[in-house]
């Protein structure tokens, strides 16, 4: 089983990942099946319950979860992302302090960049908001543009993709330091031979015409401006996540 964090709605998530799963399964000889929950928190619960063996996530870098034995083997080659607090471009809100007492929407309590980094900033500035969880980032954007929420905590990559897909415009009130995109990881239960075969399939997609065509399709679907390939990682790029947890408010660890 393979569980990616619900960055998009369920349908888009499935359309993005199912062709990738079919390709990696064929090339590696290791059958991978997509397993996603209704929300990103539901999906992460599958991971923590050890119901899946491969993941695409940034939810496993806290000290407690690193003890679970998940190992990074790759990531997408994308520009760094930022946690952002955004409003619609025509919103009268121009400063974080104006969000006090208002509804601010986040994808979910497990959304590391979109919720934990952004809400930590609101806590640090003592801006008391009403936290609303939408289940995924697309859901947060819907609440923002329908007027149900005054602002949203999000990932900059998803802001840019949604703006292109839906022709929407945002104003950024706050942006975090740069962070790397989500990590491809495998459980320590996976036999070494299978882990290496799956990694080779992911990391070689861009060099195979069939694999590259799938990457092109997935990148367009997500609203990414370039064809995004998978590249190797030893996990060291995720040090800023680990640093965050060392200093984060207790409720966000």
How are the secondary structure elements laid out?
Layout: E1 2-4, H1 10-28, H2 40-48, E2 54-57, H3 63-66, E3 71-76, E4 83-88, E5 103-106, H4 112-124, E6 130-133, H5 137-146, E7 151-155, H6 156-166, E8 170-175, E9 183-186, H7 192-203, H8 209-221, E10 230-232, H9 239-247
Parallel strand pairs: 1-2, 5-6, 5-7
Antiparallel strand pairs: 2-9, 3-9, 3-10, 4-7, 4-8
Summary tags:
9 helices, 5-stranded mixed sheet, 40% helix, 253 residues, globular
Characterise this structure.
- It contains nine helices and ten strands.
- It has helices at 10-28, 40-48, 63-66, 112-124, 137-146, 156-166, 192-203, 209-221, 239-247; strands at residues 2-4, 54-57, 71-76, 83-88, 103-106, 130-133, 151-155, 170-175, 183-186, 230-232.
- Helix 4 (112-124) links the parallel strand 5 (103-106) and strand 6.
- The relative contact order is 0.21.
- The protein is globular and about 55 Å long.
- A five-stranded mixed β-sheet has the order 1-2-9-3-10, with helices on both faces. Strands 6-5-7-4-8 form a five-stranded mixed β-sheet.
- The chain is an alpha/beta fold and 253 residues long.
- The model has no long low-confidence stretch (mean pLDDT 91).
Alpha-beta classification: alpha/beta
Characterize the overall form: globular
The major sheet is characterized as: 5 strands, mixed
| Arithmetic mean pLDDT | 91
**Lateral arrangement of strands in the main beta sheet:** 1-2-9-3-10
């Amino acid at each position: 089983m393979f569980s990616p964090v619900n960055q998009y709605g369920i349908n888009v998530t499935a359309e993005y990942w199912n062709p990738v799963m079919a390709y990696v399964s064929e090339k590696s000889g290791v059958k991978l099946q997509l397993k996603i929950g209704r929300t990103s928190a539901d999906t992460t619960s599958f991971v923590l319950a050890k119901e899946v063996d491969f993941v695409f996530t940034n939810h496993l870098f806290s000290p407690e979860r690193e003890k679970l034995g998940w190992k990074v083997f790759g990531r997408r080659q994308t520009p760094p992302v930022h946690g952002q607090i955004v409003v619609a471009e025509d919103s009268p809100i121009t400063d974080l302090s104006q969000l006090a007492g208002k509804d601010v929407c986040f994808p979910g309590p497990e959304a590391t960049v979109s919720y934990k980094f952004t809400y930590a900033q609101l806590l640090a500035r003592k801006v008391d908001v009403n936290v609303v969880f939408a289940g995924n980032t697309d859901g947060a954007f819907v609440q923002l543009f329908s007027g149900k929420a005054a602002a949203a905590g999000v990932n900059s990559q998803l802001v840019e993709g949604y703006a292109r897909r839906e022709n929407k415009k945002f104003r950024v009130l706050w942006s975090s330091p740069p962070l790397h995109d989500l990590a491809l990881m495998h459980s320590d239960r996976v036999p070494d031979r299978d882990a290496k075969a799956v990694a080779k399939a992911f990391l070689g997609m861009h060099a195979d015409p069939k694999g590259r065509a799938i990457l092109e399709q997935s990148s367009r679907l997500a609203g990414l401006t370039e064809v995004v390939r998978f590249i190797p990682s030893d996990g060291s790029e995720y040090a800023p996540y680990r640093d965050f947890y060392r200093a984060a408010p207790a409720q966000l660890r």
